[in-house]
Amino acid sequence: MHAERAAAIAAARAGAAVVRTRADDMGPVRSKSSKTDLVTEVDIASGVAVVRALLDHDPAARIVVEEDEVYDLVGVEPGELDGPEVWVIDPVDGTTSFVHGFPAYSVSVALLRNGVAVAGAICDVSREMMMSGAVGLGADLDGRPVRCSHTNRLAEALLVTGFPYDRGLPLDRQLAVLGAFLRAPVHGIRRDGSAALDCCHIAAGRADGFWEYGLQAWDTAAGAVICREAGARVTDIEGREWSPAANSGILVANPALHEAMLDLIRATSAKIPADQ
User: Which one of 3.30.930.10, 3.30.540.10, 2.60.40.640, 3.40.1010.20 gives the CATH number of domain 2-145?
Assistant: First the structure.
């Protein structure tokens, strides 16, 4: 896994260099799935840089990248999330933060084998920090090993979360769960807009638990392997083991806190009518 981890780091670094140099020249901003789901020319340019770095590592690499335009620009066909081996890329995770100059955006690169995340790297672009992990090699931040926290009570926990682009039932559900955690109570809840960085906070022990609905594989694949290697438990929002096909969201926490978070999410979600 050393080579795969090194390739993920190199690719994330290549994308981050593009994002960093284009911070004041991002070009037009447009919407995708909703008015709040933004994309810029920098997302595309970063994606191209990441894919080219991976192709330097393996010219036959299969790719899944958030921005579809990247495939044509690099001349590759889209890969499959459940394929034997595929790299999953988010060229700018936290585009809204990037657009506003809020320093919480990242480049995320992960390798999946038969649907299992086995290596990944996440570059915190504005702080120029790199977190990475690979199966059997642990997780590290700029070469220093990291571990998740040992907090085992919600009342002593700092949590992180995000909000869905769909402002209908998914938002109602998220607000209900958010309120339940605040009333649990917890020490606090933070939101910065990059699920990949949220996973890094858990892996490094800066925060104790992370949940979010409506994420895609490119948002969470690198974070999943990094958090697992840092000792955290990673599932979907319903408690099943994380997979790139999971569409119910993600729940990441140290093993002692994970069950308490899952219990509260389940109890709160059960009170929300499916047709609300």
Answer: 3.30.540.10
